[in-house]
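Record type: monomer structure entry
Structure origin: computed from sequence
Chain ID: A
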Amino acid sequence: MRSDVASRRDFLRASSGLVTGLASSAVLLARPVGAQAGQPATTTGGEEMSTGDYIPVSRPPKPNATPSMTEKQIDEFERQLACPCPCTLDVYMCRTTMFSCGISPAVHGDVQRLVAGGYSADEIMTAMMETYGDFILNAPRKQGFNLLAWFAPFVALAVGAVAIGALLRGWRLNAVKAASMRNDVANSSTAGEGSPIDATPEELDRLQAALREER
């Protein structure tokens, strides 16, 4: 009986670690493929780009260009861009909180120049992706493997939680049944030989052994 309790405790500790690990994986894999710190991303030219690289993104201004976005709209746009530095933040959060970062301000400068050049948000995003690839996206495009990589960790976490819950419910039902059978044995021993017990000899032996262990 004591060994069963110890094994259950070990299982609960292991399950807790599994859930924590899955949650961490969900947070990391929620970023686009290649967007985790320390992993290389691939540019459209096929060359690998490390997570600490800044690549200028520039386009010639359009004729008679006027700014396409306000400062507030630029801030919102930059929340969609993952900073190329290893901070795992978006460009807006990085440049406003990580004051030692020189990459997010540079990306911000590119965005400002493209806005001043008359380029729309979609055109600027296309230019960024042509330079950095999907690495620059703070959330995956809703298609193909990127979408699968976004949802897979959360599905795995949900499946793990359901499996652990089923195991715990099974243990609880077994414990209730065992307690009920122990009570039947105890009641029969005090009631005398005239009270029959609806159990096989093997079941009675196991229950009596369990009672001796608890004493």
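Annotation 1: The helical segments are 2-29, 71-78, 91-97, 103-116, 121-132, 144-191, 201-214.
Annotation 2: Strands lie at 41-42, 48-49.
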